[in-house]
Amino acid sequence: MNDKQTNRMKELVSLLNSASEAYYAQDREIMSNFEYDRLYDELTELESITGVTLANSPTLNVGYEAVDELPKDRHEQPMLSLAKTKSREELREWLNGRKALLSWKLDGLTVVLNYEDGRLVKAVTRGNGEIGEVVTNNARVFKNIPLSIPHRGKVVVRGEAIISYSEFEKINSQIEEVDAKYKNPRNLCSGSVRQLNNEVTASRNVNFYAYSLISAEGVDFADSRKAQFDFLAKMGFDVVEYRLVDPDTIMDAIAYFEEKIRTYDIPSDGLVLLYEDISYGQSLGRTAKFPRDSIAFKWADEIRETVLRKIEWSASRTGLINPVAVFDPVELEGTTVSRASVHNVSIVRGLKLGIGDHITVYKANMIIPQIAENLTKSGTLEIPERCPVCGEPTEIRQVNDVQSLYCRNPACDAKKIKSFTLFVSRDALNVEGLSESTLEKFLAAGFLHEFADVFHLSRYETEITGMEGFGEKSYQNLMQSIENARHTTLPRLIYGLGIENIGVANAKVLSRHFGHSLEELRCAGIEELSDIDGVGEVIAAGIYEYFRNAERMEQLDRLLEELDIVRETVDESAQTLTGMSFVITGSLVHYGNRSELKEEIEARGGKVTGSVTGRTTCLINNDLTSQSSKNKKAKELGVRIVSEDTFVEEYLS
User: Percent of the chain scored above 90 by pLDDT?
Assistant: First the structure.
């Protein structure tokens, strides 16, 4: 198979799949039936000529399949780690005057594919290097592997399953809970490839890049690794990008990869150098840990020395004041950097920071600016005793050995902006047109002092329509949205008040417990509040104190005069999950996001919490084999971990 045929097949697969998605999922046509059939026939012919069928080809009907566990299998050849270096000169010396292939060191999950008689028969993860997990069903739904190849002898291919940065960001954007978000593409890929239900794997857009041919029965490669890579490409594999180098060209090749990684969408944590001469490489043998025919090159963190000029303290709605280091600008990874978050007081003190100190900075994962080291360690930086926004006293609070700075003033302007932002948010009063930047303008202009003032913004029509970004139409839209927000529900109101530790779920629990009576909630004592499932003493104390503030209650009374609180009708016969508590983590397949599933559970009387406890009915996680903290906690407590499909079948059907 030549490159022209390969590229055309990939192009046809992409076109036909896009047309099918538009037609069946979006009720629109992007090509006629005639054109679709013509392209489909062309793809079928190419597959017949080349003997290659790509995994996402529309000519296949790949069935989804779930298994109870992933079986284990021993690798034909042990998979060793690679010796590593960060020195470019050492790489050149390692060549020993010979040619080698320099390629990406991809950061995903290593998978070995086995083909017999031209068909994919087995896929196994790296595991411990000796024994891996069999993930054949999942490999069949990778987006770009050939399920059949033209070579009929036994073929064993090693490569990396990866999820791109763009796909990683897309999946994470659909997960609302910060703790549930995936830390990096590699973790997401590992969990996706090792699913028990390959429908989940298929939804994650996993790709496979071949980087080593272990064996190909009956093929002579004339001792050339490049010939092996060419063979893999002809079989329909996407091969890891590489350069053939020698001592004279290796530096330019490294520079090429170094420049490309800045915008490369495929996760990579370095490069691999592999001798081109197969026999020579094999003759070198191996150490106890590493093969001697290849070596890994790890990117060295680019570190720059600079001078700390100041620490900015940034206040939030909760009163937390975060320190941000401001230093003389330096060039890091191709961009100018002058700021870095220091996160909390504990880190400030650990670094022994002082204004004027000489510090070193770098970009974590070549992205996020961080302080690496304080060379001066003067320790003279004073922690502010006054809030930088309102000037009122601050205090240091310690939670789990971490010290953080807080503003003690409940009326702090920073808290006001964040509080109003929460009050008008989608899950609260849902006032469209009041972004945080708009609220800042209105607060600065004196239009807003308390929540009830939102419903009197019509007093400032002239001023608002004269503001930049506001015209008559946007003003009228805002007024209509405010009018719509007058008609709300008690859970929305409770959440919008911004009571500490009260999210959407707890707001619904409180509303139901007190029979949708705000007055009963206001009068409740700590003991009664503590007895509510999922509340506890700390949250109960916060609720109690909130409703004991006289000034705040006067403001609440004025707000209530503006609202029409509609009681949600509840179908008692549909309350099948009453008394049950669930935790949702990870991404979903059948629901658009976790909020949708949460609403479904709460509509049936159930509760969704953020952490697993002994009272949790079950943890819903499509990644049953995940080693996440929630999965581990569930196993420790004997709480069931169920997939989305199992949950729907057992609890919602």
Answer: 38
The full 3-state SS of 185-222, as one line of letters, equals HHHHHHHHHCCCEHHHHHHCCCEEEEEEEEEECCCCCC
Residue ranges of domains in the chain: 1-50, 67-298, 304-407, 413-485, 490-565, 572-652
Give the confidence band of 179 by pLDDT, cuts at 50, 70, 90: very low
Residue among 105, 415, 598, 630 flagged as catalytic: 105
The amino acid at 526: I
Q: Indicate if 413-485 has the same CATH topology as 304-407.
A: no
Dist CA 326 CA 79 (whole Å): 46
In words, the CATH class of domain 490-565 is mainly alpha
Instruction: Show the 3-state SS of 538-588.
Output: HHHHHHHHHCCCHHHHHHHHHHHCCCEECCCCCCHHHCCCCCCEEEECCCC
Whether the CB-CB separation of 342 and 349 falls below 8 Å is answered with no
Q: What's the pTM value of the predicted model, to 2 decimals?
A: 0.50
Specify the residue for token string 């906690």: 633
> What sign results for the dihedral spanned by CA atoms 270, 276, 281, 282?
positive
Strand order in the sheet with 607-609: 607-609, 581-584, 618-620, 640-642
Are the beta carbons of 114 and 121 closer than 8 angstroms?
yes
pLDDT (tens digit, 9 = 90+) per residue, 32-90?
555 666 787 788 888 888 888 887 788 775 444 445 567 888 887 778 778 778 789 99
- The CATH T-level fold of domain 304-407 is OB fold (Dihydrolipoamide Acetyltransferase, E2P) (2.40.50)
Contact 369, 332 (CB under 8 A): yes
Active-site annotation holds for 105: yes
Of the listed ranges 92-106, 253-267, 546-560, 586-600, the least confidently predicted one is 586-600
Inter-axis angle of helices 88-95 and 250-260, to 10 degrees? 140
Q: Which of 240, 180, 181 is nearest to 210 (CA)?
A: 240
Measure CA of the first residue to CA of the last residue in the chain; give whole Å: 50
Q: Which residues pair with 274 in a beta bridge?
A: 101, 294
**pLDDT at residue 534, rounded to an integer:** 64
Average pLDDT over residues 327-354: 87
